[in-house]
Hints:
Layout (H helix, E strand, L loop, with lengths): L17 H20 L4 H18 L10 H17 L14 H25 L6 H24 L14
Amino acid sequence: MSKFLAYPFLYDKSESLLCDYEILTDEISSTIGLLRAFIKDDNLRNELSKINELVYHLNASLRTFVSVTDDELNWLYERTKTYEKEVKGLFQKFVLPEGGVAGSYCHVIRTKCKALVRLIHRHKEQGNNVDDIILDFANLLSGYFFILALKINKDEGLEETEFISRNYK
């Protein structure tokens, strides 16, 4: 073990996914912070700060106790629904994950949230108890950042590029 330990749980047993979960939530939070640096709208900057705080509350929720609430989950759901109304018609098809810098960061965060869902699912499959709200938050975060990518791209006057799969018809 290094005397310069970057995080106290880095040497957890490899079959435990707790540290991997915590590192991934930290990465998601850091990327939200980076996204926020490109946002000029104060209301959205404040919203992203609140979401960032919620992600950090999720960070310890597998190792200790669940510290996010149903009210916070419902708030995130309502924010997602609000943006869905703004981009109605843009999200009923597959789009390439691109756009401006902020929209593209939203897509990066969206995919990291999907990886988080998968990691939580694997942790649960190992026989560990996982409160449903943790999976709900991770899934909803992915949806929120997808919709936010569409909204930001729309606000910047960027059109989405439809993706038509050769594999799924």
